[in-house]
Each structure stands twice: as structure tokens, then as C-alpha cells.
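Morning. Coffee machine broken again, so started the prediction first thing and wrote up yesterday's gels while waiting. Chain of 249 residues, entered below exactly as on the submission form.
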Amino acid sequence: MIRDVIHATVDTPQEEVARLVARYDLLAVPVVDEERRLVGIVTHDDALDVVESEATEDIHKGMSIGQLEDGVSRVPLLSLYRKRVTWLVLLVFGNLLSGAGIAHFEETIAAQVALVFFLPLLIGSGGNAGAQAATLMVRGMATGDVGVRDWGKLLGRELLVAGSLGLTMALAVAPIGVMRGGEAVALVVAVSMISIVLFGSLLGMCLPFLLDRFGWDPATASAPLVTTLIDASGVLIYFSFATLILSSG
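Came back before lunch.
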């Protein structure tokens, strides 16, 4: 008689039960109490419902939207407003940091107006790289593919990948920098691109682990949040390099 049967307890989270069904290709998982007495089963169909629900919730969190009680076409308008407004208002204030950073470097911008042309490109690239990294980590943590124990290994891999991405993008944009503002501006843009993409990718990778460490849902490390943080940081990185390089040139 087989005694070591794959099972779940009454306290097992539904997401973990769904993972058991997927991992072992089961049609059902028995549920037992503390005395290992059978109290019910979770079927394959039940597990699929859980997976769909959790995936939808993660997608909503990934775009800074609260969990909806019903489908988007049926949820009340006021509820839809409430689920979206909180994060949007918070991110508005976060974006003010970018404006403050730009104001701080007014003299640098006035001395080389061509710098403004590349600002959306740089912070957009950093935000995209960070959102990609955050999405990969959040999904990996949700499926159990990665955990806090893997942080060191993942950090090393992300450093290599992000550095390569930043270098590739810097080489692509440097010729435009030469045409728009000369070699000095091209150098500023190239160095800033590498730094911002590297910073954004590492932030996007680390933020889900940091949130998980403090007991928060890693999915809260949404693309809008990561992008807002990188926007403000990218402004400081870009114009700091511009001030340093152009003033010494």
C-alpha cells in the first residue's frame, strides 16, 4: 500500500495546491486534516480556476490596479475608479521628483540644450528594462521557479545581461548623440544609457525580493512603480554625468 501520497492539508494555500496539480500532472489532490483523515479533494478543474484567478490578480497588480470583484465589463464604475486611483495619485507625486531633478540642473541644460532631446529616450529605456526585470522576477516567484535563496545568483546574471543590454543600446544611440550635440554629448548619452539601464534592471530585479522580505506581495513591484522610480533616478544620473563630463571638457 502506498503511504506517501501527494496531498494537501486544510491549511495549504490554494496556489500551492494548484502547483501540485501542475507539477505532478494530477487529476485531483486529496485534502487531509491534522490527523491525515481525508476531508475532500481538489480537482484539476478547481486548480485551473485558481491559476486563472491568481494570474488575473497578478496582472492587475503588475499595472497598479486593485483586485476586481468581477469582470471589467461588469464591475461598477465607482469600484473601478477606486481600484485605480490610489496608485495613480501616489505615482503623480513620485513623478514630481523627476521635475525637481530637472529644475536642479537648469544651468547644465541651458549650457547644452541638446541634452533635453535624449532625456525621454534614456529614462524610457531604463524604465522598460526595469519593468522587464521586475516582470520576470515576479512571475518566477509566483510559479516557484525562483526564491529569496536564488537572489545572489540572479543578481550576477542580471548584472551581465543588463550591462550587455545597456552597452548595446549605448552603441545604437551614440551616433545620434554625435549628430545632435557633438562627441561630448554622445559620450554623456552613452555612459548614461549604460548606467540607467543597469540601474533600472537591478532595481526591477531586486524590488520584488525586497517586498517579499518585508512580507508584502512581490507583485506590488509593478511596472508603473518601477518606471516612476527609474524616471526620477534616471534624471539625476543623466544630468550628473552631463555636468561632470561637459564641465571638464
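The longest helix spans residues 151-181. Going to sketch it on the whiteboard this afternoon.
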